[in-house]
Amino acid sequence: MKAIKIISYLILSLIFLYILSGFFLLPYIAKKEIVKNLDEILITKTKIEKIYFNPLTLNLELKGFSLLDEKEQEVVGLKNLFIDFRALKSIEKKHFHIKNILLEGIYLNIIEEEKGVFNLASLLKPTKTKEEETNQKEKTKLIDFLVSKIVLKDTNIDFTSFTDKKKYNLHLKDINYTIYDFGTFKNSLSSNNLQFKLNENTDVKISGGIKIEPFLAYGKITISNLKIKEILDFDKSLFNFELNPEANINLALNYNIDTTNDFNLFLNSEIFEINDLKLNQNQKEIARLNKLDLKYFSFDLNNQELNFKDLTINDLYANMILDKNGVNFANLLKEQKDEKEIKSSNQENNENNLNNKPWKINLENINLNANFDFHDILNNSKLNIKDIKAKTSNINIVDDKINIKGANLVTLDTKYIDNNNKLNISSSKTDLTHDDIFINGSKIEVSNSALKKDNVIFEDKKSKIKITTNNIDLELSKLSIFDEISFDLSNLKLNKFGFEDKNSNISLSSKNSNLKLNNFLLDKEKNISINQTELYDTNVNFFDSNSSFDINTKKTNLKISNFSLKKDAIVIGQILLKDPKIDILNMESKLKIEAKNINLDLKKLISKENFFKIEKTNLNNPHISIILPKNSQAKGEIEKNSINKQEVDKKVENKKTTRVNLGPINIKNMTLDFEDKSLAIPFKTTISKLKGAVSAVKNRADSTSNLEINGVVDDYGVAKITGIVNPNDIRILTDINMKFQNISMKNFTPYTAKFVGRAIKDGKLELDLNYNISESNLKAKNSIIIKKLELGDKIESKDAVSLPLDLAITLLQDSSNTIDLNLPVSGNVDDPEFSIAAIVWKAFVNLITKAITAPFSLIGSLFNFSEDEINSVDFNLKESEITPIQKETLDKIATILKSKKEFAISFSPSFDEKNEKEKIANQRALNIQKYLIEEKSIDKKQVVLEKDIKKSSSNIDLNIKEIKK
């Protein structure tokens, strides 16, 4: 009994001693030892306000803990630490259990010195202890533990860095953190919540769960109004730009970490925004972003997949500058590594990438609104692109494979100015769309593309060239770029196009251009092939002020098939030109050429070095009109053009000759109108139903070409041209026959009015012209037959030849009223004074002049009489009777007058006043008149006795007159 009592007192004493020690002794010893030991190992001074321990509840509380530096500034502080142990549960469940841990008022003052050393890292005093190697690597199982609740309350962290010239401060304030059921016992999944404020503006919230073994963590991180500048200012030496203080990031990020098997990480965002971003470099704004808004982002480490959805970039502005230091955007980050380190790092990364499977990157619904400026200071040029709008419905990236769907790029205005080269380029309203783009390494495939552009202006002030376009509409399908470039179909619509070269004084413009290309291919050998090219319904104007030519084409339809370019050799299977309307006007001479209904078919065209060939040419249904203006070209201009042509010919001769082979040329149903407005009465004629062929035309020295052309002149005339020529030089060989039959002479009134002052009332013309040139020597036969020619009224013309044409025509016509003329021409065409037209015209004028001035010679030849036999009646002195001598002459005259009823013989009395009297002159004349009328039965109208008397000779001279109707 006594022993039990002693034991009871002993136990009570121990309990009392335990309680006293726990309440008083243990806190005192703990405080003293903690301060002592920390002061021994740390360079700071330790202060503890109070330690409280409840041995009954096993609650531990520490108040007013702080570490002070030599300046008595607090480095680490803790207002209150409270720990609530659960020993009974720990013993019962065989684990270490803490119910609550409260850490209140923690304060950390972290300082980074100039050399990059942190104050907290250097709190330990230096020691001289030898390094002891411990090889105990036996794995021991740690006791399970469980902390039911950990609370971090009112924690503040100050971070100060002196590594930069300017002191950097970062404050984490009002940190509150709560975690439940943290530990390895029961493998509990603990929940935790963390909130704090970064500096004055940023709120950070983290909530989620965590598991120790195996390590699992999930949760959500929310960051509001994170000021980017406050983070980047930590080390300004890394950055070569200045950021505005208003720039901020908003983020809501879900995370999931699982190490059950491997390390798996999955992240996805609910909010990711960058707002009010402005970058300045050298006191210039280089970038500005109103807002970047990413609605959804996910990162899957296990599947190696990145997903971005609904990305919107609003009001992005980029100002790129190129100067002697390079491009400003390339220098945003200052170099921290030398090239060797960078190369080594890149090499290691490349080796690591080889061992990894490719990442998958998916982007959906991307929208961009931006403006872009580029200033090239080195080359004194500027580029400005306004209101850029870009969007894609989907971008998929796997390794080096990229697939882009629904891409669209729209710009409002684009301007490029090159001050050095005086070059300006501007465009407005560009709209570029791609349905599907697939990129595999260096291979690019685009299914369908469309480009729409309001206008483009290209102006080269140096070369004085200006190009303008209006309303471009381009469609492209199945574009492929790899070793070869190809596309299936291209449609280009161009409302207006203008080209102006002020140096060459030429301009080219088009309206409503429509161009279609099928199956284009540019292979790796730089060869080009196009299955078919079509230009349709296009209006083109070409103006050359040097030559004063203005050319207009309307409704041009051009089709080129099987085009091929290989090693500077061009091969075209077929060229078709159909139904264009072409107007050619010489602005100086006013010469006008019109063409319509042209159907030109060129078969197999080949062009390569020093060789050009067209296998066959068909020209169907063309209607060509040539109109000479009212005022023809001056002689000086003709000579000027001739000189220019000679200069051109000399230049051509200096070039290496290209071998030309033009296959047969076939003409069918051609109509040719010719109108000459330079005459007082405009001349117009039409040659229709022209058909014919020209054999192959080659430029070999010995080559020849045969030609045969037939047509209808006006309503009832016919024309035929046949012959053979040397196409290289007609002076070497030309043998041409041109026949015109049943040509109405009435149509030639404009020319006869101009050159002979008379209209043509009626008549038909037949021409048979033979021109033979051999070795530059011309022999030409011009057979001209005029039937039933009847002149009309007189027409005043300053160019008209003053000739009595009625008499000449009467003299030239035979009994059937036909004039048959042969005007041979010969000469050397190399003679610069030689002109076929001039020679023919001179021969014709000489013939008419001869008919008028020597009519007896002409008319006598018709009756085989000599001129001397009929041009006078000879009398001896003082004789007046008609003797056989006079009868011979008068009988021949009678024969002519009976045949030519439209002619009359006129004569005057004549005597020799020195030897005769006037009376005998009258008697001679009366005797001649009487003989012709009474003896030969000649009409009185055909015998005209003039009143005037000639006194120089006894012979009476005869004259031929036309009887006026």
TrEMBL record:
It holds the Pfam family DUF748. The keyword RNA-binding does not apply. Keywords: Coiled coil, Membrane, Transmembrane, Transmembrane helix. One of its GO terms (cellular component) is plasma membrane. It comes from the Bacteria. InterPro entries: AsmA-related (IPR052894), DUF748 (IPR008023), OmpA-like_sf (IPR036737). The keyword Transmembrane applies. Residues 330-357 form a coiled coil. The chain crosses the membrane at residues 7-30. One of its GO terms (biological process) is regulation of protein targeting to membrane. This is Uncharacterized protein. It comes from Aliarcobacter cryaerophilus. The lineage of its organism: Bacteria, Pseudomonadati, Campylobacterota, Epsilonproteobacteria, Campylobacterales.
